[in-house]
Amino acid sequence: MVDYENPWMYRGKPFTSKKIKDYYGFLYLIENKLTGRKYVGRKYFVQKRKPKGGKRRVTSESDWKKYYGSNEQLKFDAKEFGKENFSRKILSLHKTVGKTNYAETEALFKYNVLREKMDNGSPMYYNDNILGRYFKKHYWED
Fold first, then answer.
1. Domain that holds residue 74
2. pTM to 2 decimals?
3. How far is residue 87's CA from residue 59's CA, in Å, rounded to a whole number?
4. Hey, which bits of the chain come out as E strands?
5. Domain count for the chain
6. What is the pLDDT of residues 70-92, one digit of tens each?
7. Is residue 2 part of a domain?
8. What is the distance in angstroms between the CA of the first residue and the CA of the last residue of the chain?
9. Would residue 130 count as lying in a domain?
10. What whole-number distance in Å separates Cα of residue 62 and Cα of residue 44?
């Protein structure tokens, strides 16, 4: 049973907490259904936090159900256009931090997120950098 709005889809079906099992994170694609603009990223299912006054870190489920990426323009557009106008698709599931991170980096280059253009010449992807090292502004040709 889906217990959150605009669910992440995996292989054509809504993804729920029960399906996490021993997966650590996932690679995803978010698409603005109104403009066609996309975002590729990764998200972990778990978070490790040290509670106030606590001595040990506690592991719990992350905010993955509500997550719409880390890109400010994407978050603004989701609020502006309405989250229902965005599709959220899980591309792959991964069992370790390293495999999740590698899958993201590989996908960012594979999809050419810094340079790919839409038919009207505007950027296809919201992503503006890869690894905080390669930036769209350095590769975008006006």
1. 9-139
2. 0.90
3. 28
4. 9-10, 13-14, 25-32, 38-44, 46-49, 58-61, 86-94, 129-130, 134-135
5. 1
6. 999 999 999 999 999 999 999 99
7. no
8. 47
9. yes
10. 7
